[in-house]
Design brief:
The structure is a homodimer. Chain A is built from four helices and nine strands. Chain A is of the alpha+beta class. Chain A folds into two domains: about 120 residues, Nucleoside Triphosphate Pyrophosphohydrolase (Alpha-Beta Complex), CATH 3.90.79.10; about 70 residues, Winged helix-like DNA-binding domain superfamily/Winged helix DNA-binding domain (Arc Repressor Mutant, subunit A, Orthogonal Bundle), CATH 1.10.10. In chain A, a hairpin with a 2-residue loop joins strand 1 and strand 2. Chain B binds a DNA duplex through helix 4.
Chain lengths: ~220, ~220
DNA sequence: TCAAAAGTGTTCAGGATACACCCATGC
DNA sequence: GCATGGGTGTATCCTGAACACTTTTGA
């Protein structure tokens, strides 16, 4: 089936890496070093070569361009594959996008392309259609809050329910009722109460919780 | 960024084409003409060459291998992109899968690879991991029944509520309550009552309905 | 004693579920 | 007149939404 004349399209991989900073959802961007869009902010991305999987390519790209390893990310999930406009004489390109969720991600001394986390709520105009890709990833993340334990990947091992609520609020973009939020999250059976308290500030200490699982768990669906 | 030495992975496109036959959900399969898995049933798929989009490749592959045009399909949706095991010396391959939904799809005189629709409930062992891909597509379709009008792509222009219910039941794999089903579907505001009746058989004629839209519509979400 | 965040229950409305009988037709 | 599928309504349960005050601590 494979002719000798078969020439594959260019394949690229792009990553939408989220983490919480200062109670805001932020996304990792780099400054493009070359045309097209030289100097513009963009998602970290690059070519996928023969002999490496898309995950391997993602890891390599994040490492080289931003000093981030996928091992620092609690969740990595494929988003969508775009047919991109040709960027070279080979014709159409295919772009596979991933979403990654982390916490305390360090950008180890890679300032060549100035990797930085930007608040998702106030993004500059990005290269290509990267703004749309981020919106898509954000929607996916919003939806997953409702029926998975994804939030674990964005929080420290132990956290207070108020911290957890602030993550939900930042991602959903709406304030939530404290009592209803606690009732619901506790009823999902994804959290584990610890015996520890966080005592910070001049107020009553807060109970610390952990997630029962540190990997993505999908809760039961609901249609008939 | 693009070295002259860049060699992309092999890119393939596979289609999971569903239609209703005899009140059952069925999927289009072909018999593989070459190794690997020569003689085994498989999803129609093939190489994506430079210069064509994945949609174009899908259309070409379906046309050549099964005599099906994507224009016969009411819905075409990308499913997932798999890193496949290398099938040739180029190394890893990337496989982009699509789901297509049709009705009355004709396989125009292409019996070279014996294209046929098989009941999803009773599939043979397929080549590669195609059984898993079909399960994935089936899950996606189930989920979409709940919050979109996808079913339009599987039904004739006019249909009875009983026909519609039978599509839902076949896909979900459970019987549904007639009164509750009608109440719910009618409340979604995706159907349009016609003035026509279907009079077949020795019983009361049934009201015919159409879908208000003949393109995919997503209903409102529900999280906070 | 004051400020600041933690923690906690009840009421209400709307949607989902369960359930059984009469209707219109062809033969 | 009978067999066949078409068509309809109500009572109940459960989930989601709204809503305000007391508790514990540090300063």
């Amino acid at each position: 089936m494979l002719q000798d004349t078969y020439i594959p399209p260019t394949v690229t991989v792009d990553g939408v890496i989220f983490q919480m900073l200062d109670e805001k959802l932020t996304v990792l961007l780099i400054k493009r070093a070359r045309d097209p869009f030289m100097g513009a902010w963009a998602l970290p991305g690059g070519y996928n070569a023969a002999g490496e999987t898309t995950h391997e390519a993602l890891n390599r790209i994040l490492t080289v361009k931003a000093g981030v390893s996928v091992r620092q990310l609690g969740v990595v999930e494929q988003l969508y594959t775009f047919d991109s406009v040709a960027r070279d004489p080979r014709g159409h390109a295919v772009s596979i996008t991933y979403m990654g969720l982390g916490k305390g991600v360090e950008l180890n001394g890679h300032d060549a392309q100035s990797p930085q986390f930007f608040s998702v709520a106030h993004l500059p105009k990005l290269a290509y259609d990267h703004n749309k890709i981020i919106v898509y990833a954000h929607e996916r993340l919003k939806a997953k809050l409702a029926y998975t334990n994804v939030a674990f990947a964005l929080l420290p091992h132990e956290f207070t329910l108020t911290q957890l609520q602030s993550v939900y609020e930042a991602i959903l973009g709406t304030p939530l009722d404290k009592r209803n939020f606690r009732k619901r999250l506790l009823s999902l059976d994804i959290l584990q109460e610890t015996t520890e308290l966080s005592k910070e500030g001049a107020h009553r200490p807060a109970r610390l919780y952990t997630f029962r699982d540190r990997e993505l768990v999908t809760l039961v669906r609901s249609f008939d």
